[in-house]
Give the backbone structure.
Amino acid sequence: MTNDRTALTRSELADLLTEAAQNVGGIPAAEYPTAAARSYLHPVLGPLAAGPRVITELNDRFEGFVATEPRPAGSAGLFALASYASALGWLTESFAELTSSVDEICTRVGIPTEPRAPITAAPGGTEQDDEFDFAFNALELEAVRNAAEAAGLAPDDYVEVLSQSLLAAARITDACMEISSGLLDDADLLSEVSDRPRLDNDPGSLPALVRSLLARMETTE
């Protein structure tokens, strides 16, 4: 099917990436009402609720983008297409990981465990590898005990699932911020005064998100 519409301009392509960046960047700040019995999930419920809506909106815009007649072509159109597709794929993968983490937390809460030594207040805390190590003063310890009681969990179990929730929230926040930043970088490049983006055989001329994904693939090999 063809029509008389013209291809999107560089400015319109930049606006498309900028809007996507703003939507993705707003995910970590999303709020969701959390019952006291599920307070350990509070760090992830907002992003978990907002993420699917943003992904659906981005996917709908992407499908409309590629369905436009004439289809995106030329260096600017293909550049924007690659950036947008990379953002959508990365975000979808990140939310699959977030959902898996939340599932693990819910499973952990529902599985009976052997009693453990109760948590105690400590003078300080450290962060090791990919885990959170909590230490509490007397007031914080009382708050944890109250929250654990409301959730029907032992205090040490409550701290464990809360730490998993905070870690999952930190991961999705990092992903969203990196995706948003990459989209904005690519939008800025499209907004430059020159007639076409700096596209050549130099890997540095690839969209920022494509370069980030390639770097991530290299580190996992």
